[in-house]
Amino acid sequence: PGLQAGTHLVLLPAMVAMLLLCVSAALFVTGFPADCSHLHKNSPSGVYVIQPAASPPRVVWCDMDTEGKGWTVVQRNSHDTELMWKQSWTTYKYGFGNVQGDHWLGTEYLHLLTQQGTYKVRFIVRNKANVTHYAEYDIFRVENEASGYPLRLGRFSGDGDDYLTSYHPKKGGIHDNMKFSTTDRDQDQYSGNCANSYGGWWYDRCQNVLLNAKNHILWPGFCDNGDCASSLILVKPTDVC
Questions:
Q1: Where are the alpha helices (DSSP H) in the chain?
Q2: 1 contacts: CB under 8 Å, gap ≥ 6
Q3: Are 48 and 67 in contact (CB under 8 A)?
Q4: What's any one GO cellular component for it (predicted)?
C-alpha cells in the first residue's frame, strides 16, 4: 500500500516504466518535470513522475482539473480512511499511502519541492453535505529537516475564514511558522504532544485546523466537529514574484 520509507527507490524503476506513456515526449530530453505545473495543459489528471531540484524522482498525483491546472497533490485524506496517520517522523519524512488514494507525499519532498521556487497552496475540504470549500495562500514553503520542517504561509484567500495564519487563542493558536510534530518528535507549544491524539501536523497548542487524522478532519466553519468527508492539499508555483 503506497511508497514507504526506504522502499521508494526500489519500486521506482518499475513504476517509471509503466508511467512513461503518461509523460509527454518533450520531457524525455531534459528528464522529469520539476512539478505538475510543467505538464501540458491538456494532460489528464493522474499519476506522473516528477523530480524537484536536488530530489530523486517521485511518483505523484497531478491535478489537472482544479482551477489553474497543474497542481501537485501533496496530501489526500478521507474521513473513514484505512490509512493510519499516527506515523513516525521518518515515515512522515518519506511519505506513505497511495498517491491514487489517501496519502502524504513526504515532509522532505515538500521541502525539496517548495525550495526550488515560490509556491502557493490550496487546502480543499468537502463537508458531510458534499459541499467543497477551499483556503488558498499565495506563498507556501516547508523549511528543511534541521529546522524542524516549519511551515511558511503567505496571504490568505478563500470562501471561509483564515485559521492557519491568524491567531485563535480559544482554539489551537496558530499554524503558520510552527514546526512539524509527530508521535516520536514533539515540537509543538503544548505541554503534551498534540500528535499523539491524531497524527503529524504543524501544531501550536494544538490545532485550529487538522487534516492529517483518521476519522477526524477539522476546519472551523466548514466542519467544526472534525467531520469533514475529505481533504486535499495542492501546490503549484505562485503568481507572486
A1: 8-19, 89-94, 107-114
A2: 97, 98
A3: no
A4: extracellular space
**Terminus-to-terminus CA distance in the chain, angstroms?**
39
Q: Residue 148 corresponds to which cell in the numbers above?
A: 524542524
Secondary structure (DSSP) of 79-139: TT-S------HHHHHH-EE-TTSSEE--HHHHHHHHTTS-EEEEEEEE-TTS-EEEEEEEE
Chain Cα centroid distance, residue 125: 13
Topology annotation, domain 8-156+228-237: Gamma Fibrinogen; Chain A, domain 1 (3.90.215)
Model-level pTM?
Answer: 0.86
**CA distances (Å), origin 119, targets 35, 70, 136:** 11, 12, 11
> In the chain, what are the domain boundaries?
8-156+228-237
Nearest to 190 by CA among 211, 201, 170, 205: 205
Cα separation, 168 vs 171, whole angstroms: 6
The band of 30, judged by pLDDT with boundaries at 50, 70 and 90, is very low
Q: What is the pLDDT of residues 157-175, one digit of tens each?
A: 999 899 999 999 999 999 9
Is residue 2 predicted with pLDDT exceeding 70? no
